[in-house]
Amino acid sequence: MSNPSILILPGDGIGPEVMAEVRRIIDWFGAKRDLAFDVSEDLVGGAAYDVHGTPLHDDTMKKAFEADAVLLGAVGGPKYDVLDFSVKPERGLLRLRKELDLFSNLRPAQCFDALADFSSLKRDVVAGLDIMIVRELTSGIYFGEPRGIIEEGNERVGINTQRYTESEIDRVARSAFELAMRRGKKLCSMEKANVMESGILWREVVTKVGEEYPEVELSHMYADAGAMQLCRWPKQFDVIVTDNLFGDLLSDAAAMLTGSLGMLPSASLGAPRDNGRPYALYEPVHGSAPDIAGQGKANPIACVLSFAMALRYSFDQGAEADRLEEAVNTVLANGARTADLLGEEGVTPLSTSEMGTKILEALDASL
Ligand code: IPM
Ligand code: MG
Q1: How far out from the chain centre does Cα 239 lie?
Q2: Would you say the pTM of this structure is higher than 0.85?
Q3: CA dist., res. 56 & res. 49, Å (int)
Q4: How far is the CA of 47 from the centre of ligand 2 (A)?
Q5: 289-320 pLDDT, tens per residue?
Q6: 322 a catalytic residue
Q7: Ligand 1: which of 9, 93, 134 to mutate, judged by most atoms within 8 Å of the beta carbon?
Q8: Are strands 130-136 and 5-11 parallel, antiparallel or unpaired?
């Protein structure tokens, strides 16, 4: 049998630097755990635009369909701000999400104990935090029609449309309930049913799906109140399910609870294929961070943890995912810090590759 395949799309900014560390870790699993992957690499975002004049070449899209999992670094940068909307780096990422139909975006916000003091919130509010935001990723206002900027009378009008079908809500709700079953059996659904019809339908459909999961305690919150509760007492949540735009906002807020955006991974999952593996893309939640790109300062942990999610959700290697997450926990507990995690006295920052080496050492020690 051939090895499972991974398509790596490092992208822009710090993407290539953090991805280089992930490649070392992928190689480690091949050498030390008899878990070899066929890894190929291609371009996405501005890097693809520079070569092909498009942020995602059709050949790359085809490779993404064929790969068992896609691992993406980051897209975008100031150099590309002037580009037409249709070829901006972000369009490459959005095309991947849409065409692979990756409707369920898992964004965990976990606070590593060693980092609880990095949060802008008090230690006891965030220590031990472990929540999962499930963001709908292929519909809603990101993709709804009509959209555009049109002329009306003597001025222009910007239009985007929030649109959700029952089946779109149903499938993402189901994935959130399934996750809740494997975690703390609590699900909070967030929308704005007080002002949006799409929110009313969202609440109805989620409630109906919930009847099939009587063990899961389901609650509903308006998304604005949800944002407030996330800052007030985030540990009240286990799994949160929400739409594309609210999920974008709430997941950034939740990420910052944990101290640094440089820590958080994500998985975007679609329907299962014939071999049981879902279409899947894994990426750090942080962006391309152009201000520090190319300097070896970036924190590779979010990208490394994204690979851990790939082990768990694409390759059915939960124990190896635990091993990798535990290695990250160990290096942080031992005081390893990249530049985004400074503030404690007497700590010199590690470079991106030094952090990678520490994680590899912790992996070795785990054997
Ligand atoms: C994210 C990002 C993207 C989004 C951008 C880069 C298109 O903010 O993944 O959260 O808005 O979905
Ligand atoms: Mg975002």
Answers
A1: 15
A2: yes
A3: 7
A4: 20
A5: 999 999 999 999 999 999 999 999 999 999 99
A6: no
A7: 93
A8: unpaired
